[in-house]
Amino acid sequence: MKQSVKQQLNDYIKLIEQKLDEFLPLKYPEEIWESMRYSVLAGGKRLRPVLCLETCRVLSGNFEQAIPAACAIEMLHTQSLIHDDLPCMDNDDYRRGKLTNHKKFSESTAVLAGDALLSFAPQIIIQKTPKTVSQDKILKVLEEFLVSAGAEKLIAGQVVDIDSEGKQIDKDTLHFIHENKTAALFKLSLRTGAILGDADELQLAALTDYAEKIGLAFQIMDDILDVTSTLEELGKTPGKDALEEKATFVSLYGMDTAKQRVASLCDEACDILKENNIVSDILQEIANSITERVA
Ligand code: GRG
User: Fold this and answer.
1) Using an 8 Å Cβ cutoff, are 101 and 113 in contact?
2) pLDDT digits (tens, 9 = 90+) for 55-92
């Protein structure tokens, strides 16, 4: 990775960490805020907020107007992880290299921390987005956020995923799960940055396509890493898919096809940027680095 891109990425991550900390103060009753902060500030890759900020910057030259929305998306992502790790869902002990929320606190606190993050995130968009951003745009961003978080996207993906455990599923069903469980938040990130960066219809469509490609590639890579990685590398328990008899891209298509598919999706994502004259080292680097990711 070019040194300048690495620096830009690190700058974004540092800012996101700082703003997440600032947007999540410790209030009464402290147990719930501690639990929300524990998972949000546990040091994920911050991929989704970076995508949101960079998309806004590349279109408008600024990203300040997208900082609250980018942090809100990271809160929503963290909420989905807290709930996904619960005993009634994936039942995981480790996440982001630390004990999962319900292991560190309690099951009831983890449920409530997820719920609290889900409603706190749009609150942050409304309260913290600069007043220079029109109400119309904020409403559009909120609509994207709420649709993505709900039963039409994220929860639809999760329900079909849980329902598919231990069953033979077809390729369309697997695609539905990946599309809604994973690609939806990548799309939300790019589309939010695009709306706040004043994208025209063509740019919005191109960035949505780019997000779809990298979202699917990211999930297929997740399926690959579940087979090939260790707990230390992943920060979460590997081998869970086989244990829970989950159909994955690897189990349905085989490892070689899975790797080829990740590579071709990432190439296609970069082509979309080129064809639409969207010049961003970061967006290009994120697409290219998915094939090489280890965590
Ligand atoms: C929305 C009520 C509600 C519940 C959420 C949808 C859902 C239940 C859970 C899905 C969570 C999940 C594990 C999705 C798969 C996407 C994925 C690969 C997440 C991991 O993303 P990374 O690697 O994580 O970017 P970090 O920790 O780096 O942020």
Assistant:
1) yes
2) 999 999 999 999 999 999 999 999 999 999 999 999 99
The predicted model scores a pTM of 0.96
- What is the H or E stretch that residue 98 is in? strand 98-99
Distance (angstroms) between ligand 1 centre and the Cα of 80 equals 5
182 lines ligand 1 (CB under 6 A): yes
pLDDT value of position 243: 78
Ligand 1 touching residue 92 (CB < 6 A) = no
Q: Read off the pLDDT of residues 224-262 as tens digits, 9 standing for 90 and up.
A: 999 998 888 888 888 887 777 888 999 999 999 999 999
Domains of the chain plus CATH, in order, are 3-293 (1.10.600.10)
Max CA separation in the chain (angstroms):
52
CA distances from 237 to 2, 75, 157, 227, 243 (A): 31, 22, 21, 11, 11
Of 229, 223, 207, 205, the residue nearest 262 (C-alpha): 223
For residue 67, how many other CB atoms are within 10 A of its CB? 24
